[in-house]
Amino acid sequence: MCPLAVDVLFHIHEVHKPTSTGRLITRVVAGARGHVFRPDAPFDPGAIHRPGHQLWILHPLGEPFSNLEGELPPQVLLLDSSWREATQLVRRVERVGRLVNLPMAGASRYRLRTARGTPVFSTAEALLFLLRALGHVAAHEALQRQFELHVYAGLRARGEKAAAEAYLADSPAKDAFPDLIAELNRSRPRE
Protein backbone atom coordinates (compact mmCIF):
# COMPACT_ATOMS: atom_id res chain seq x y z
CA MET A 1 0.00 0.00 0.00
CA CYS A 2 1.35 3.41 -0.95
CA PRO A 3 1.17 5.96 1.87
CA LEU A 4 0.74 8.81 -0.64
CA ALA A 5 -2.20 9.80 -2.79
CA VAL A 6 -0.67 9.49 -6.28
CA ASP A 7 -2.03 10.86 -9.54
CA VAL A 8 -0.43 10.80 -12.98
CA LEU A 9 -1.31 13.32 -15.68
CA PHE A 10 -0.56 11.81 -19.07
CA HIS A 11 -0.13 13.88 -22.18
CA ILE A 12 -2.20 12.15 -24.87
CA HIS A 13 1.02 11.35 -26.78
CA GLU A 14 2.30 9.32 -23.82
CA VAL A 15 -0.74 7.26 -22.87
CA HIS A 16 -0.22 4.29 -25.17
CA LYS A 17 3.58 4.08 -25.20
CA PRO A 18 4.81 0.77 -23.78
CA THR A 19 7.80 2.57 -22.28
CA SER A 20 5.57 4.81 -20.13
CA THR A 21 6.37 4.40 -16.45
CA GLY A 22 3.33 6.51 -15.62
CA ARG A 23 1.21 3.61 -16.83
CA LEU A 24 3.29 1.32 -14.62
CA ILE A 25 2.44 3.52 -11.62
CA THR A 26 -1.29 3.41 -12.29
CA ARG A 27 -1.09 -0.39 -12.58
CA VAL A 28 0.97 -1.23 -9.50
CA VAL A 29 0.53 1.60 -6.97
CA ALA A 30 -2.64 1.05 -4.95
CA GLY A 31 -5.07 3.93 -5.35
CA ALA A 32 -3.05 5.71 -8.05
CA ARG A 33 -5.21 7.51 -10.59
CA GLY A 34 -4.44 8.43 -14.19
CA HIS A 35 -5.74 11.48 -16.06
CA VAL A 36 -5.30 12.22 -19.76
CA PHE A 37 -4.61 15.69 -21.12
CA ARG A 38 -5.61 16.41 -24.71
CA PRO A 39 -4.58 19.87 -25.97
CA ASP A 40 -7.69 20.07 -28.16
CA ALA A 41 -10.22 19.08 -25.48
CA PRO A 42 -11.64 20.78 -22.37
CA PHE A 43 -9.65 20.05 -19.23
CA ASP A 44 -10.56 20.72 -15.60
CA PRO A 45 -7.39 20.64 -13.49
CA GLY A 46 -9.49 20.94 -10.34
CA ALA A 47 -10.78 17.40 -10.95
CA ILE A 48 -7.29 16.08 -10.14
CA HIS A 49 -7.11 17.55 -6.65
CA ARG A 50 -8.30 15.19 -3.90
CA PRO A 51 -10.22 16.91 -1.09
CA GLY A 52 -8.35 16.98 2.20
CA HIS A 53 -4.93 16.81 0.57
CA GLN A 54 -2.18 19.26 -0.28
CA LEU A 55 -1.35 18.82 -3.98
CA TRP A 56 2.32 18.69 -4.91
CA ILE A 57 3.15 18.83 -8.62
CA LEU A 58 6.66 17.49 -9.21
CA HIS A 59 8.55 19.73 -11.62
CA PRO A 60 12.13 21.12 -11.79
CA LEU A 61 10.84 24.72 -11.70
CA GLY A 62 9.10 24.21 -8.36
CA GLU A 63 10.07 25.27 -4.88
CA PRO A 64 12.63 23.13 -3.08
CA PHE A 65 11.21 20.00 -1.51
CA SER A 66 12.84 20.76 1.85
CA ASN A 67 10.68 23.90 2.24
CA LEU A 68 7.42 21.98 2.20
CA GLU A 69 5.28 21.73 5.25
CA GLY A 70 1.55 21.50 5.61
CA GLU A 71 -1.24 20.37 7.83
CA LEU A 72 -2.86 18.27 5.13
CA PRO A 73 -1.50 14.94 3.86
CA PRO A 74 0.28 15.23 0.52
CA GLN A 75 -1.08 14.22 -2.85
CA VAL A 76 1.53 14.03 -5.59
CA LEU A 77 0.85 14.75 -9.25
CA LEU A 78 3.36 13.30 -11.68
CA LEU A 79 3.54 14.55 -15.26
CA ASP A 80 4.03 11.79 -17.82
CA SER A 81 5.13 13.47 -21.02
CA SER A 82 8.10 14.77 -22.97
CA TRP A 83 9.84 17.83 -21.51
CA ARG A 84 8.22 20.08 -24.11
CA GLU A 85 4.79 18.68 -23.34
CA ALA A 86 5.41 18.96 -19.58
CA THR A 87 5.60 22.74 -19.94
CA GLN A 88 2.12 22.70 -21.47
CA LEU A 89 0.84 20.45 -18.67
CA VAL A 90 2.33 22.62 -15.91
CA ARG A 91 0.61 25.71 -17.29
CA ARG A 92 -2.72 23.89 -17.01
CA VAL A 93 -2.32 22.51 -13.47
CA GLU A 94 -0.06 24.88 -11.54
CA ARG A 95 -2.92 26.89 -10.08
CA VAL A 96 -4.41 23.87 -8.27
CA GLY A 97 -1.25 22.83 -6.43
CA ARG A 98 2.31 23.67 -5.46
CA LEU A 99 5.15 23.07 -7.90
CA VAL A 100 7.77 21.05 -6.07
CA ASN A 101 11.37 20.50 -7.13
CA LEU A 102 12.64 17.19 -5.86
CA PRO A 103 16.41 16.92 -6.30
CA MET A 104 17.17 13.73 -8.18
CA ALA A 105 20.79 12.69 -8.23
CA GLY A 106 22.73 9.69 -9.35
CA ALA A 107 22.35 7.55 -12.42
CA SER A 108 18.97 6.73 -13.89
CA ARG A 109 18.02 3.04 -14.11
CA TYR A 110 15.62 3.84 -16.94
CA ARG A 111 17.13 2.35 -20.11
CA LEU A 112 14.12 2.51 -22.42
CA ARG A 113 14.54 6.12 -23.59
CA THR A 114 17.33 8.66 -23.72
CA ALA A 115 17.56 12.41 -24.18
CA ARG A 116 20.43 13.51 -26.38
CA GLY A 117 22.08 10.15 -25.88
CA THR A 118 21.98 10.07 -22.09
CA PRO A 119 19.53 8.26 -19.80
CA VAL A 120 16.82 10.43 -18.27
CA PHE A 121 14.87 9.98 -15.06
CA SER A 122 11.46 8.50 -15.66
CA THR A 123 8.12 9.34 -14.08
CA ALA A 124 8.38 6.25 -11.86
CA GLU A 125 11.87 7.28 -10.73
CA ALA A 126 10.50 10.68 -9.68
CA LEU A 127 8.00 8.88 -7.46
CA LEU A 128 10.77 6.62 -6.16
CA PHE A 129 12.85 9.65 -5.15
CA LEU A 130 9.84 11.18 -3.39
CA LEU A 131 8.98 7.97 -1.51
CA ARG A 132 12.57 7.67 -0.33
CA ALA A 133 12.72 11.36 0.67
CA LEU A 134 9.57 10.92 2.76
CA GLY A 135 10.93 7.77 4.40
CA HIS A 136 8.38 5.36 2.90
CA VAL A 137 10.87 2.51 2.56
CA ALA A 138 8.48 -0.40 1.94
CA ALA A 139 6.55 1.48 -0.76
CA HIS A 140 9.84 2.58 -2.36
CA GLU A 141 11.20 -0.96 -2.47
CA ALA A 142 7.98 -2.43 -3.87
CA LEU A 143 7.82 0.16 -6.66
CA GLN A 144 11.57 -0.19 -7.35
CA ARG A 145 11.16 -3.92 -7.99
CA GLN A 146 8.21 -3.35 -10.35
CA PHE A 147 10.05 -0.54 -12.15
CA GLU A 148 13.15 -2.69 -12.68
CA LEU A 149 11.01 -5.55 -14.01
CA HIS A 150 9.31 -3.08 -16.40
CA VAL A 151 12.65 -1.90 -17.78
CA TYR A 152 14.02 -5.44 -18.05
CA ALA A 153 10.91 -6.69 -19.88
CA GLY A 154 11.00 -3.66 -22.17
CA LEU A 155 14.59 -4.37 -23.16
CA ARG A 156 13.75 -8.05 -23.79
CA ALA A 157 10.70 -7.10 -25.88
CA ARG A 158 12.97 -4.99 -28.10
CA GLY A 159 15.27 -7.94 -28.63
CA GLU A 160 18.05 -6.33 -26.60
CA LYS A 161 18.81 -9.54 -24.70
CA ALA A 162 22.40 -8.73 -23.79
CA ALA A 163 21.42 -5.28 -22.47
CA ALA A 164 18.52 -6.85 -20.54
CA GLU A 165 20.79 -9.41 -18.89
CA ALA A 166 23.38 -6.76 -18.02
CA TYR A 167 20.60 -4.63 -16.51
CA LEU A 168 19.29 -7.56 -14.48
CA ALA A 169 22.72 -8.35 -13.00
CA ASP A 170 22.38 -5.70 -10.26
CA SER A 171 18.60 -5.37 -10.21
CA PRO A 172 16.36 -6.24 -7.25
CA ALA A 173 13.92 -7.70 -9.80
CA LYS A 174 16.25 -10.69 -10.27
CA ASP A 175 15.61 -11.99 -6.75
CA ALA A 176 12.03 -10.68 -6.47
CA PHE A 177 10.66 -12.32 -9.62
CA PRO A 178 12.82 -15.39 -10.46
CA ASP A 179 9.93 -17.45 -11.89
CA LEU A 180 8.65 -14.60 -14.05
CA ILE A 181 12.13 -13.83 -15.37
CA ALA A 182 12.66 -17.52 -16.16
CA GLU A 183 9.37 -17.50 -18.09
CA LEU A 184 10.44 -14.38 -20.03
CA ASN A 185 13.64 -16.20 -21.00
CA ARG A 186 12.00 -19.49 -21.96
CA SER A 187 12.42 -20.40 -25.62
CA ARG A 188 9.16 -20.70 -27.50
CA PRO A 189 8.57 -22.48 -30.78
CA ARG A 190 7.89 -20.23 -33.73
CA GLU A 191 4.42 -20.46 -35.17
Compact overview of the structure:
The protein is α/β, with parallel strands linked by helices. 38% of the residues lie in helices and 20% in strands.
List the helices and strands and how they pair.
Elements: E1 5-11, H1 21-28, E2 33-37, E3 54-64, E4 74-80, H2 83-93, E5 98-101, E6 114-115, E7 118-119, H3 123-133, H4 137-157, H5 161-169, H6 173-176, H7 178-185
Parallel strand pairs: 1-2, 1-4, 3-4, 3-5
Antiparallel strand pairs: 6-7
Helix pairs in contact: 1-4, 3-4, 4-5
Word description of this protein:
The chain is α/β, with parallel strands linked by helices and 191 residues long. It has one domain (5-185). It is built from seven helices and seven strands. It has helices at 21-28, 83-93, 123-133, 137-157, 161-169, 173-176, 178-185; strands spanning 5-11, 33-37, 54-64, 74-80, 98-101, 114-115, 118-119. Helix 1 (21-28) crosses helix 4. It is globular. The protein starts with a strand and ends in a 6-residue tail after the last helix. The mean pLDDT is 88.
Summed over residues and divided by their number, the pLDDT gives a mean of 88
Total strand segments: 7
Quaternary structure type: single chain
For the termini, the CA-CA separation is 41 Å
Helix content: 25-40%
Please write the string of helix (H) and strand (E) elements: EHEEEHEEEHHHHH
Please give the domain count.
Answer: 1
* Structure annotation, total helices: 7
Major sheet description: 5 strands, parallel
Regions with pLDDT < 50 over 5+ consecutive residues? none
Supply Rg. Answer: 17 Å
Structural class: alpha/beta
Globular, elongated, flat, extended or rod-shaped: what is the shape? globular
Major sheet: arrangement of strands: 2-1-4-3-5
SS strand fraction: 15-25%
